[in-house]
Amino acid sequence: MCGWGVRGAGSVGGVIEFVRNVRLWFAPARIEEEGVTPDYRFSLANERTFLAWLRTSLALIGGGFAVDQFLPDLRWEWRAGLALGLLAAGVLCALRSVNHWVRCERAMRRGEDLPVSRFPALLSIGVALVALAMVVVVLAGWES
Amino acid sequence: MTVRDPGLQPERTRLAWRRTTLAATVAAVLAGKSALREGPGVTALVVCALCCGLWLGFLAVAHRRIRALSGSVPPQAFTPRHASTAALCTIALAVCAAALVF
């Protein structure tokens, strides 16, 4: 469902591609062998995009902590469900940030188009659902 | 520094690292507050120490990168190893948070 799934959503190809990318995360030499080194400004822009996604991830994790902490009157299932939903979104966001960074870097080296992704749309739908659930739960007063 | 980049790309990237460190600090403070909510027990202190360690790990990556970016132009390349370390610190923080929910 994330960036790596775009080429074939739910297909085996997507999984293989992701595993290959994971190997690249820890083998910096391999990415430098391919193609030509792009203009450093493009690499820095890619790095800033990575950091922006990481901040999004940290904000979602902070939101998870906040739900757990600042809604103590909520029923436990709701509190845990909302908190875990936000935390899971944060983890996905962090994983995807590295993966997308690697893919963009490689595309720039090979002179290909930058990868497209449906992850931002899925993430915004997920966050909207959590926000809606939070409004409903707090307004309806389903408290313990 | 040999050449001045008119787009201030290294500076902007450095500031992006600072912002991210700030976000990590906020998340770590919330984690500490969450861990110590029910008084200082053994579990609470262990989770708190773990979160502090993760925060320090993140800080180390950010510091190293900021140093690299304030050096020569063009700066050293950002390696996948650094990217994954930063992301893994974030993920571990989320795992700590999930453990605290239960």
Structural description of this entry:
The complex is a heterodimer of chains A (144) and B (102). With 144 residues, chain A is mainly alpha-helical. Chain A has one domain (12-140). Chain A has helices at residues 12-26, 28-33, 40-70, 76-110, 119-140. Chain B has 102 residues and is mainly α. In chain B, helix 1 (9-35) runs antiparallel to helix 2 and helix 2 runs antiparallel to helix 3 (80-101). Chain B is elongated and about 55 Å long. Chain B starts with 8 loop residues before the first helix and ends with a helix.
In short:
Chain B: InterPro entries: DUF202. The complex is a heterodimer of chains A (144) and B (102). Chain A is mostly helical and 144 residues long.
The whole-angstrom Rg of chain B is: 17 Å
What sequence of helices (H) and strands (E) makes up the elements of chain A? Answer: HHHHH
Q: Provide a count of the helices of chain B.
A: 3
- Give the helix/strand class of chain A: mainly alpha
Protein name (chain B): DUF202 domain-containing protein
Subcellular location (chain B): Endomembrane system
Pfam family, one (chain B): DUF202
Transmembrane segments (chain B): 42-62, 83-101
Q: What are the key terms here?
A:
heterodimer, A: 144 residues, mainly alpha, 76% helix, 0% strand, B: 102 residues, elongated, membrane (chain B), DUF202 domain-containing protein (chain B)
